[in-house]
Amino acid sequence: MAAKKTTGKKKSPAGQLRIVAGIWRSRLLQIADVPGLRPTSERIRETLFNWLAPRIRGARCLDLCAGTGALGLEALSRGASRAVLVERSPLATKALMANIASLETTGAEVRNLDARQYLGGSNVELFDIVFLDPPFAEVLHDELCRLLVERRWLAAGARIYIETDKKQPQVCLPEGWQMLKNRTAGNVRYMLATTEV
User: Fold this and answer.
1) Residue 128 domain-assigned (yes or no)
2) Least crowded by CB within 10 Å, which of 14, 75, 128, 168?
3) Rounded distance between C-alpha atoms, residue 182 and residue 161, angstroms
4) Is the pLDDT of residue 11 over 90?
5) Which domain holds residue 173?
């Protein structure tokens, strides 16, 4: 990974994650020691939530392959009304639940399931924002996007955040989706798409 410029901001201690802004600004969350778990960086989260700023207040969010919960919990900190965090690792799920308890929030809900299993379930609800950041070693993006559409998980005008290894092929967006933003930072490609046409 490329060296980052010093910005004067404090770095999160090893094994911890810092919430960037909102009601829990600078709160530190624990990161489970799970192979392949890769939190979205503070710099990328700051950019992403600048993009989402007009839509975050009151939004219903789905954090698929939640890992550390960095995206779903950042969304709640910034005013989202609800965040469902889906994570298959029992160890990561346990850390997520401990972090949620430390924040004393009722807006977060954790599901210890594989993302495909969750999206294939029968309890479908509409989400305004979806965070899609599966492990880089598993190329799941196209399948998860397809399930979001086929199972009708997306509210009108939903925003879908997609994070991939920049060496992987570009994600094939479903018909009717539009790419709004497409950036790279280090070895990460991060994108924002919408269902609006």
Assistant:
1) yes
2) 14
3) 10
4) no
5) 16-194
